[in-house]
């Protein structure tokens, strides 16, 4: 069972990102403060539940959260500041847009930077331990998937609708065949050495 709270703070926010290992598209983060009586038996780390369940959960989380926000950081920024900094920036910006600011932040993973002097704690595999981080992981994943489905229409040959920009064999084959798009992260190793492209 996932826990509702980690700290004694009243407005504890969970944050997580999606798309860190992708070759194309943004890294997307979300932040969520849940109501003290929030309960949901399906909610878990977004990687552990089906797309259908994630899509069903998003409106429930948004309706029942005390406060939430999400943010995309796009490929040009990722290339400029690197993926780790971009992931943390996406988390910071998703907290920025929350209508109610948290007084404590719990972060999935082990890397974060201080945000507005608000105390925080990083929790490895936090999305499988705390409901607010799991809720943030579902929002980040569904908003990012929605974006990837949209840009898929522009470049269907990369099949982002299915692979969401992750480095599948099919995605890499398409890069080799068609080259790179404006949505690809140029700082990433888009192809293994033997398939190197001249960028």
Structural write-up:
- The chain is an alpha/beta fold.
- It is 37% helix and 17% strand.
- It is built from 6 helices and 5 strands.
- A 5-stranded mixed beta sheet has the order 3-2-1-4-5, sandwiched between helices.
- Strand 1 and strand 2 form a beta hairpin.
- The longest helix has 24 residues, at 131-154.
- The termini are far apart.
Write the layout of secondary structure elements.
Elements: E1 12-18, E2 27-34, H1 51-64, E3 65-73, H2 75-81, H3 83-96, E4 104-108, E5 120-123, H4 131-154, H5 160-163, H6 169-178
Parallel strand pairs: 1-4, 4-5
Antiparallel strand pairs: 1-2, 2-3
Helix pairs in contact: 1-4, 2-3
Summarize the structure.
The chain has helices spanning 51-64, 75-81, 83-96, 131-154, 160-163, 169-178, and strands at 12-18, 27-34, 65-73, 104-108, 120-123. The protein is of the alpha/beta class.
Distance between the termini: 48 Å
Strand content: 15-25%
Return Rg in Å: 17 Å
* Shape summary: globular
Low-confidence regions: none
* Strand order, largest beta sheet: 3-2-1-4-5
Q: Would you report the number of β strands?
A: 5
**How can the largest sheet be summarized?**
5 strands, mixed
What is the tally of helical segments? 6
What's the helix-strand series?
Answer: EEHEHHEEHHH
Coarse structural class: alpha/beta
This entry's quaternary arrangement is: single chain
List keywords for this structure.
5 strands, five-stranded mixed beta sheet, 199 residues, alpha/beta, 6 helices, globular
């Amino acid at each position: 069972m996932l826990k509702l709270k980690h700290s004694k703070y009243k407005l504890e926010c969970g944050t997580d990102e999606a798309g860190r290992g992708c070759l194309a598209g943004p890294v997307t983060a979300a932040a969520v403060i849940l109501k003290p009586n929030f309960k949901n038996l399906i909610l878990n780390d977004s990687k552990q539940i089906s797309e259908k369940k994630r899509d069903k959960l998003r409106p429930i989380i948004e309706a029942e959260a005390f406060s939430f926000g999400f943010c995309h950081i796009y490929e040009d920024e990722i290339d400029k500041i690197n993926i780790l900094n971009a992931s943390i920036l996406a988390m910071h910006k998703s907290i920025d847009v929350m209508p109610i600011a948290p007084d404590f932040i719990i972060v999935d993973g082990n890397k974060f930077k201080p945000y507005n002097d608000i105390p925080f704690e990083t929790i490895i595999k936090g999305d499988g331990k705390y409901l607010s981080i799991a809720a943030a992981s579902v929002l980040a994943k569904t908003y990012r998937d929605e974006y990837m489905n949209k840009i898929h229409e522009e470049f269907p040959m990369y099949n982002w609708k299915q692979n969401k920009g992750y480095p599948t064999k099919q995605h890499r084959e398409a890069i080799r065949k068609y080259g790179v798009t404006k949505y690809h992260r140029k700082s990433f190793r888009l192809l293994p050495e033997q398939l190197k492209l001249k960028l």
